[in-house]
Amino acid sequence: QVKSCHLSAALLGEDSEISQEQLYELLKYAALGKCHNAAQPSWCRIYHQSHLAGVVVVVLHEMSQLHFYRFYLQFKHLRRVFRHRFTLAPSANFPVSLYGEGTNLKPQNTPQGLTSTSSECITKSSDLQCDPIIQRYGEKKQGLTSYTLTLEEQKKNDYPIEGSPGCKGYISTECDQQRTDSSPLFGLDCEMCLTAKGNEVTRVSLVDARGQCLLNELVKPESTVVNYRTRFSGITRKMLLPVKTRLSDIQTRLKKMLPHDAVLVGHSLNSDLQALEMIHPSVIDTSLLFARSEGRRFKLKFLAKAVLGKEIQCEQKLGHDPTEDARAALELAQFFIEQGPTKVAQLNLEMLLTAEKLAEVSQNKAVLQPQGCGFQEQLNEPPPLSKPCFLDCLQVTGQKPLLLGRQGSDSSGLCQSNLSTSNKQILQRALEDVPLSKFSIIQFSLGPEYLASHLHAGLHEKVRSKLTDMLTIYAGPFEENFCMKSVKKEFGRCGPIQSLTVVTETFQPYVCIQYEVLEAAQLAVECLNGAEVAGSCIKVQRPVTAAMLDCNVLIKELELDVENEGVIYVAGLKKSLTETDLQEEFSQLKDLETLFLPKDLQSGKHRNCCFLKFQKTQSAVDAREAINGWTMKGSQLRSRNALAPGHLWRWIWQMNHSNGKQGKHIFYEKMEQHLSDSEQDLRKRVKKLDQHIKKLHRSLQNNTLCVVLFPGVNSTHGSQPGLGLMGIKDDEGRSAC
């Protein structure tokens, strides 16, 4: 049964802007797992990464968060399918930040003119037959019992053997040889000091198959220590002074801890067992597992870096960490068993070792170079090694990334095609080739005629203007000498107010209120229209403009947005309440998952509203009904369904506080006619683009991570943040978190 992959990301709040480095972090881990220094991203978590069917990244070239919300109704598929969104910081060179520095992928023009990948760094099939790993184990993947040392191999490599003359007095773990491919693995490593007797154990570490430390114990040697070997062992005289544990104690503990079919894993494990004076029948020795010719062996430090991407035995540390070494050996064995000999041989470890040594020589030469060397001599030096791109690492492990795009839409040279290539042609190639690739980058574009910076600036003004109208309500009429304080208090119970002014152009006074969040404005319309405020029965409405004619449709779609499922908005809170206070007050609500208390992004002060996210949609409905009418610390609460995710909340705030919010710049007025002429066609193109992504998404296998990126824009008219949508496709066709 295939385990289901899923994402976990807590980005409900306004601090959900993701940097290009964090995005790279996610894609690298999704593509490589724990290999090549790929770690779980810091801002979200992928569960069961090894079961991912693939990774597909869709890049919408030269588009930003602005495009998504300007054409929100047209992006019907994107807003309904992808459960998680995040603001993406714009980058001066998006391709480099996405693919990583040092990428060696240089696609050629293929007959179709769309994509190609280089495979020069992949070991050829014919070369694999000569690899010592293939010669020893064959090409097929096997169970762990195929990699345990035979009795003859143990004798040959100086392992303690039952009945051998040199093993008198040695303690047996009493484990039998009835091991299977399901037998548990344990990583073991010891540190030794030189005593009058010889090498004696001074520290022992044992880790289980999950890498959890079961034993990490200092041991008092029986004989006088001659050399602590602190540089390697990390052991000092001071550390051993209070230690009471003896070797016999460790032997007893190990016998109790190891099950009858335990398989011990270590690097040159014979030395550890000799020092422990113990005999164990089932062992995997990683110094022999990763076979080399002529009896040579790779060092553990090198294998950890080349295979796992982990730095161990760092020079900054005092001595080796036996737990770290035991865990590294264990993970190396697990990698070998899971990937099989062919994948390991394709890593071409000999080549990587040679490259590492050359780099060290080059670095040492640079350090030792005397001052005053001529410029010409520097030109003859080899270029510095660049940081490896994870796409290069993919190729080294035998996985060919797929890159599809349009010529002129990417300055990186990664995606080349004929000028006539359209989004439709790219989609057709993607439908054919994506199932054959573990990692794909598909780039669509609206076309060069829609990427001009002045058009982008015009879109910005239109979106800013519409958002301002949606955040604004008019209320009245009031009596001539109405109490402004009462009005502000009543409307403030709906949410944080940006501004409140009196409209004097009317026969009777009205007020114009601009809120900071969409939910507050909507709540005011729903709760206070027809209510009595400051002694008057008032009408509450939004501005009536051409752009606002579809406001109700937009509000409804925002409410149904997949990212707002199970999220409600609560207003009327006292600003003195802390997040801890609110957690306590709302603790009685069933299935409450997250509480987000917005802050003013300038002052850092809490607002008088919050968002509550529930595990189940029905629990959110029940909570909303219960909260309406609640009194908390003397303040009556109001609640409704959420409309704006955290990243949109931040964006609205920035637009409200951007320069030029008081009126249109003459620059925008001059191009309004041009915008209205082109925007109708642009809507059609966006709708078609959404349909392309829908078709591509439907064709993906379940458990495929899909990330859609609006990269953001940097132009002379300012920068626009990007937007990311992501999820792992599930059985229902959604990209779930």
Walkthrough of the structure:
The protein is α+β, with helices and mostly antiparallel strands and 737 residues long. Among the domains are: 6-99 and 390-448 and 677-729, 3-Layer(aba) Sandwich (Alkaline Phosphatase, subunit A); 142-339, Nucleotidyltransferase, domain 5 (2-Layer Sandwich), CATH 3.30.420; 565-642, RRM (RNA recognition motif) domain (Alpha-Beta Plaits), CATH 3.30.70.330. The protein has 26 helices and 32 strands. Strands 2, 4, 5, 14, 15, 28, 31 and 32 form an eight-stranded mixed β-sheet that branches. Helix 19 crosses helix 26 (666-699). The chain is elongated and about 110 Å long. The model is unreliable at 102-124, 365-387, 407-420 and 659-675 (pLDDT under 50).
Write a brief caption for the model.
This protein has 737 residues and is of the alpha+beta class. It is 36% helix and 19% strand. Among the domains are: 6-99 and 390-448 and 677-729, Alkaline Phosphatase, subunit A (3-Layer(aba) Sandwich); 142-339, Ribonuclease H-like superfamily/Ribonuclease H (Nucleotidyltransferase, domain 5, 2-Layer Sandwich), CATH 3.30.420.10; 565-642, RRM (RNA recognition motif) domain (Alpha-Beta Plaits).
Number of strands: 32
Could you say what the CATH architecture of the domain at 6-99 and 390-448 and 677-729 is?
A: 3-Layer(aba) Sandwich
Give the helix/strand class: alpha+beta
Approximate shape: elongated
Portion of residues in beta strands equals: 15-25%
Average pLDDT, rounded to a whole number, is 81
What's the total helix number? Answer: 26
Protein name: REXO5 exonuclease
Keywords: Exonuclease, Hydrolase, Nuclease, RNA-binding
Pfam families: RNase_T (PF00929), RRM_1 (PF00076)
GO molecular function: exonuclease activity; RNA binding
